[in-house]
């Protein structure tokens, strides 16, 4: 019992004692002075010794009865008033929901979205630190780890990794993202040396005047294009073994491409499957304008002029080939990561499981840019992860109080969501509890902010995955909202084929595709999405608490209803 209950009993006792003493004194004085008809009967009875004895016992018993009655009245009335004033200790569902508070959520979001976690990119030290923090919370509130008696469900991700890639001219090496950028995933199996010819603008009429078979080819792209170049495909059709592309006229323009290449390499998505190190072709190099003259021995301006001459005069055939070397290597990088699971066993329906989830990974540190480059992901999805942690605490409290849910509840913080829902995909393929026993997945991804459409609205949340308005899942969700939450449910993104395709873009999808009912809670797209500006100070913690409590109520009802939720 909390101090407030002791305080109420103490004050009630004091008041009752004070009032009782005053009233009892009055009663002892008043009772002997009872008026007619008692006084007349009292005089008559007292005329004999026997009658006087009767009067004595009647007065004694009457006075004691009245005093005891008043004692009861004077104790319970103040006590009842004090319970109204001070409140009582409740063990109802509202009591547990109220423990999900804005200050507690802020504490957890502040840790998860701190600079020290460096954006929680999957496989990086910051992500592992976040995992340890979540595991510690589950341990501290008394939840066991269900993944082979562990809190971590470990998994390996794989990604092809570009190794050494360069072009060499006269013994000098020009490395990838320096003065050349390699586009491709081929392994040259060592250094390759080839004659290099200039193929102008890469037209058929250009290739018809030179022999490129088995050689390296330099092509001029005048409009700056870089991807899916038909000129490169044409060069390969004519037998070129390697293609070099010259598509910029200034070093600054080329440097932008080099920066993008470094960013691309660092952001390449991993996979649950090992990639095959093979490629349909050798790839291509984009070269800087400063390197063009080094490669050909001809000034770029003169090469441009030659490119524009009439191919009928075979200007390209008059250029002497030079010799270059190149090397490309590829490997497979293994990324070790983990989902974090906490389990609360149910009672009479413990074999059925409610899954409450959020992803705790984010996109890490931007490879380029000025100023703050750490993407802390306070809303995406430290807010959802903090909510899962708080819901776990509320359910754990209920179980300690003997009010645990009928169904079991599994709390999961997923990794690899930002890499393609990989953590939840792995769980769906390797579930700790059978998917057929999973009653519902309540997935939480960004619930700490407002989007531009709701800047002035009442407390709201987007609901995704409940289907048609008449579906049993939607009715269940609305019932809980009406009974407990009183939030504005926005169904803008609820259609599976909405242009944003949000139904497929968070971890609930890997449950939905396995036939598990899902509800995805979301606050919308705001201007700080996937930017370093998604910071803790922009979270509305009171709103985050309201949404988190609503999800708790939904989980509570799903865990305790007689019949499990089924899809229509």
Structure description:
This protein has 568 residues and is α/β, with parallel strands linked by helices. It folds into 3 domains: 3-86; 97-157 and 334-560, 3-Layer(aba) Sandwich (Aminopeptidase), CATH 3.40.630; 160-331, Glucose Oxidase, domain 1. 39% of the residues lie in helices and 19% in strands. The chain is built from 16 helices and 14 strands. Strands 1, 2, 3, 4, 5, 6, 7, 8, 9, 10, 11, 12, 13 and 14 form a 14-stranded mixed sheet that branches. α12 (378-400) links the parallel β9 (349-359) and β10. It starts with a helix and ends in an 8-residue tail after the last helix. Mean pLDDT is 86; it is low at 1-48, 53-58 and 72-90.
In the CATH hierarchy, the architecture of the largest domain is: 3-Layer(aba) Sandwich
Query: How many H/I helical runs?
Result: 16
Q: What structural class do helix, strand and pairing data support?
A: alpha/beta
Question: Ranges with pLDDT <50 over ≥5 residues?
Answer: 1-48, 53-58, 72-90
What percentage of the residues does DSSP assign to strands (E)?
15-25%
How many E-type strands?
A: 14
Summarize the main sheet: 14 strands, mixed
N-to-C order of helices and strands: HHHHHHEEEEHEHEHEHHEEHEHEEHEHEH
């Amino acid at each position: 019992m909390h101090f407030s209950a002791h305080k109420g009993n103490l004050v009630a006792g004091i008041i009752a004692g004070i009032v009782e003493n005053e009233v009892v004194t009055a009663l002892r004085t008043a009772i002997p002075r009872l008026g007619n008809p008692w006084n007349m009967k009292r005089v008559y009875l007292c005329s004999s010794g026997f009658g006087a004895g009767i009067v004595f016992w009647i007065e004694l018993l009457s006075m004691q009865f009245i005093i005891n009655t008043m004692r009861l009245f004077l104790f319970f009335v103040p006590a009842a008033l004090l319970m109204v004033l001070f409140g009582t200790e409740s063990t109802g569902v509202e009591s547990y929901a109220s423990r999900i508070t804005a200050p507690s959520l802020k504490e957890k979001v502040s840790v998860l979205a701190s600079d020290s976690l460096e954006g929680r990119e999957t496989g990086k030290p910051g992500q592992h630190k976040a995992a340890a923090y979540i595991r510690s919370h589950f341990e501290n509130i008394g939840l066991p780890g269900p993944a082979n008696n562990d809190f971590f469900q470990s998994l390996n991700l794989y990604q092809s990794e570009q190794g050494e890639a360069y072009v060499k001219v006269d013994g000098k090496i020009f490395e990838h993202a320096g003065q050349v950028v390699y586009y491709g995933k081929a392994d040259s199996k060592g250094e390759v040396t080839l004659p290099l010819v200039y193929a102008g603008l890469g037209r058929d009429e250009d290739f018809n005047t030179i022999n490129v078979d088995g050689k390296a080819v330099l092509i001029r792209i005048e409009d700056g294009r870089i991807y899916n170049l038909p000129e490169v495909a044409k060069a390969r059709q004519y037998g070129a073994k390697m293609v070099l592309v010259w598509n910029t006229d200034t070093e600054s323009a080329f440097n932008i491409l080099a920066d993008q290449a470094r960013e691309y390499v660092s952001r390449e998505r991993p996979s649950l499957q090992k990639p095959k190190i093979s490629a349909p072709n050798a790839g291509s190099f984009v070269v800087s304008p400063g390197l063009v003259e080094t490669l050909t021995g001809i000034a770029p301006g003169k090469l441009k002029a030659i490119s524009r001459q009439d191919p009928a005069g075979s200007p390209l055939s008059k250029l002497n080939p030079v010799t270059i070397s190149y090397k490309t290597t590829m490997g497979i990088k293994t990324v070790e990561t983990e989902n974090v699971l906490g389990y609360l066993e149910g009672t009479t329906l413990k074999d059925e499981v409610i899954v409450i989830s959020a992803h705790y990974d984010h996109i890490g540190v931007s490879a380029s840019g000025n100023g703050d480059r750490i993407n802390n992901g306070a809303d995406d999805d430290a807010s959802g992860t903090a909510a899962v942690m708080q819901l776990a605490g509320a359910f754990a409290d209920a179980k300690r109080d003997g009010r645990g849910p009928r169904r079991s509840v599994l709390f999961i913080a997923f990794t690899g969501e930002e890499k393609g829902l990989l953590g939840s995909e792995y769980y769906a393929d390797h579930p700790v509890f059978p998917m057929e026993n999973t009653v519902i997945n309540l997935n939480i991804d960004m619930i700490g902010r407002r989007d531009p459409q709701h800047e002035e609205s009442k407390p709201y949340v987007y609901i995704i995955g409940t289907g048609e308005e008449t579906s049993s899942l939607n009715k269940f969700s609305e019932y809980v909202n009406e009974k407990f939450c009183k939030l504005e449910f926005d169904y803008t993104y609820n259609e599976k084929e909405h242009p944003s395709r949000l139904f497929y873009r968070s971890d609930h999808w890997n449950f939905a595709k396995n036939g598990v009912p899902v509800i995805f809670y979301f606050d919308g797209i705001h201007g700080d999405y996937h930017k370093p500006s998604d910071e803790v100070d922009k979270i509305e913690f009171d709103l985050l608490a309201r949404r988190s409590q609503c999800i708790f109520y939904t989980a509570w009802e799903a865990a305790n209803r007689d019949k499990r939720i089924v899809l229509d």
